[in-house]
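Exercise (ungraded).
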Amino acid sequence: MADKTFIVKIKRQQRPDEAVRWEEFELRWRPHMNVIICLRDIAERPFTREGKESSAVSYEANCLEEVCGACAMVINGKPRQACTALVDDLEKPIRLEPLTKFPLIRDLQVDRSKMFDDLKRTKCWIPIDGTYDIGPGPRMAPEKQEEAYPLSRCITCGNCLEICPKVNADDQFVGAAIVSQVRLFNMHPTGAMHSAARLDALMGPGGIEDCDNAQNCVKICPKGIPLTESLASVNGQVLRHAIKSFFTAPKTIGSAAPEG
Amino acid sequence: MSAPKIIVVGGGLAGLMATIRVAEANVPVDLFSIVPVKRSHSVCAQGGINAAKNLKGEGDSTFKHFDDTIYGGDFLANQPLVKSMCEAAPSIIDLLDRMGVMFNRTPEGLLDFRRFGGTLYHRTAFAGATTGQQLLYALDEQVRRHESEGRVKKYEGWTFLSAVLDDGGVCRGICAMDLKTMEIKTFPCDAAIFCTGGIGSIFGRSTNSVVCTGSAQSALFQQGAYYANGEFIQVHPTAIPGEDKNRLMSESARGEGGRVWVPKTPQDPRPPRTIPENERFYFLEEWYPKYGNLVPRDVATRAIHKIVYEMKMGLAGDPAVYLDVTHIPRETLERKLEGILEIYQKFVGVDPHVEPMKVFPAMHYTMGGLWVDNENQATNLPGVFAAGECEYQYHGANRLGANSLVSCIFGGGIAGPAAVRYAKGLESRYENTSAAVYERERVRQQDISDTLLNAHTGTENPMTIWRELGDVMTENVTVIRYNANLQKTLVKLDELSDRFTRVNVQDRTQWSNQSLNFVRELGNMLVLAKVITMGALARNETRGAHYKPEFPNRDDANWLKTTIARYNGGDIQLAYEAVDISQLPLRERKYTAAK
Amino acid sequence: MAVAASNSRTSYILDKLQSLSGIVPIGAFLAEHIWSNSYALVSPAKYNDVSSELQQVPWRIFVETAVLWLPLLFHSLYGFYIWWKGKSNITAHPWMSNWMYTLQRWTGLIAFVFIAWHLYTQRYEGHGVTSYADVQQFLTNPWNLTFYIIGLLAASFHLGNGVWNFACKWGIAVSVRSQRAFGLLGAAVGVSFALAGIAIVIGLHYGAFPLGGYVTGGGQ
């Protein structure tokens, strides 16, 4: 019996400055395949459908269970994680493209360091005094933990940036993921003491003002994070902070110039 | 003298903790990681982190935690550091709590604890079922803060190739490769801390992440570092089998009341939900009434193997057993286990809230690793430290669930300051090391890459060699070990190593060449595979995760000792070292009753 | 690359003003405008009364400039700038809210052109003085009528969706539930403004006074 096969089309680019080419691979179908297995099949037998020798496809992947965020790519037009993209659920031929909102490295691999830089710029951490043994952390109501926990599951995959009309070459909106992290840290009893600095960092071009409520982010988030609630919540926080810091003097925290 | 310079390789829990501790001492630190540190394998840890805080009125204590850990590890671990770790665990939880980890809470606003394998106490703090992710993020955030304040410099997207050793064998830096430009460079330092994690890739499919190849450990081993207890490989009893990887189904599923069973009638074709209670065989509960579904992992794994392969009672069509959480209220599942149930739903397409999950054991963790001393996480190479899964110190012959996160943070927390102390005590710093020492190592590594890239005649596909490596290791060097099979494995490994000399890196470019990097890792995996297999072959006893039916008992008279592998110009030699059992008396390990 | 964090808050303030100006004064004025023009459905006399009342506001040119022309101009021009900065991806991801995002931009443009023309014909050409007869005559032209209807639909949609946007962007509606509630409120505003507006222009077109019945006795 002939094996069942299917086609995968991949947008390839050896280097950022080289020409784009599409390659088609014919792969043998097995049960429970995902896109990662497709890419590994190609690495083991790197010949295109026409029989031309090609090379393994470059892509980022690590945990393969959708907690590390590495393997985001555009699959059949939708940005998502390759590990949870099951072949049986995908329309054939399967089209694989790199994320478009980040600098390309090679093939399906992009550089998402912008997101980590933005986490730095927005001071997304709890400024503890040190790692010495100085007793327990603040108490927290279970309800509060249940509200915060989903936000803390953000895997920095960048799909919400990819899908956002306001993230592009002309508008460097930090994106829903970062805004949602600011909300998370402002929610924490210790983090809240330093919320002003985070809110300051979200004022100005690229900040919260750039969200125009297309609400695509919440639909694409692989972790189901309530991103639109985070955006609205932080919108309110920034506004209250702006009004308060305009009317009250002297300004206490955060010189509004967090330069990293 | 100027401030010393520290390098940390690996940005998982242990590496980040070490980095924070070094930065806190105001010593500059360079942090190297293959992936952005936030994507490290620690994110995969699910169930929780152990600390005997005794918040449930059960009379738990750090001593009991220590005793459970040593007993669970079948008395192979050196006891003093394990004791210190268990004593430090409650303060580690406090620290993480202060860092903002969203641990689950009790109505009073305190940390909630769940039960885990190998203990009778509620000792495991948890953040949903994604505790590792939450912990890693907390440390990642602290490192980012130190980075923004200039104390840490990150090299993400670099892979470690080798240590730079001077003529006296002292570590003076590292040699690493930029995975984007493929540039090979040396980086000077006074001490290097390795936190390079697991080795799952050697077994092909495991619960580990793609980067867990053990390549760094193997490279150090080939430079003279000792590798200890390599044969102790933990196979997790409950994973979702998959072709790309076996996905972990956390012990917390059982900690929250999940039950493991098979139909009493072998190959029963009925859907699991329709099989009545009295026709189900809850074999763990029946065989181990005291611990039930929460026996240690090696015990549960062997029980499942026995059910499936010896008793032929596996599920119809699948070598698997049921892990059932359908009787637990949905609200509890959503609050405490959502992260893992979601994984099952996404990858299997079946809702575990209503249908029992099909699970099977999978390679999960290495108890063995780089040899480190009993005090400072220092390896035998001067200036080289190690912490986390890549070293051997804390888990003996079998690791208890939820002890890995605590050992990573504890070990990293020791390694950082120890490296700083060591560096400050050096008579001569890296500045005085001749440039020729660095250049020598860089050229050696560059030659390896160049040779691979220019080997146009290669006929062997690296992915094929890797698949065969994984198959033979999984078949013969995991749950059940027979000497004849281990010998065959060594022959196979020699064959693979031979074929590896003819490997073909199809991609010859000098830009983000993932094939080249993979081939270099594969070479290192083959060496470590041999260390593991040789250790297993030599150890003629059964202890913890190391199970030999031909030698079914623990043999303290002959084998209460640590295996130490050394590399001598291509040859691997095994030596042994006594275990420090100064704190607890030896006892027989059995889980059929309370110990 | 590099983003945000200029220590100037100018763009933040401008963005917030753009959002606010759509509700107050522009949205409020639209409400008032539809209200006062609804008198066209009562009687020409009443309509002319109300119109002349409004046309005799003291400091009229300054009031109009401050409350209408400047906010309108700012709201539109800054809105176009925001539009230019975004890159719609509605064809790839045709979700409802994404449609709203895209339509908000196009209806803004249509409303802008319509208002410009409406001002030119009704305010500039008529020197700020118009009567029922003038308007009715203007709207007998079917092309004028069509464009009015399109303009009214666009403006109503833009305002209705703007109410929802405003609630989200000012952090008033944070929970998904409240955002949905504001979405419904916005829809109600949009639909009722559109219906009222279209009723007025059609009434003018046909010279009908459906609301005239119950005021005949009372009058002025």
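Further reading is listed at the end of the chapter. For now, observe: Chain C touches chain A through 42 residues (CB under 8 Å). Confidence is low (pLDDT under 50) at residues 1-7 of chain C.
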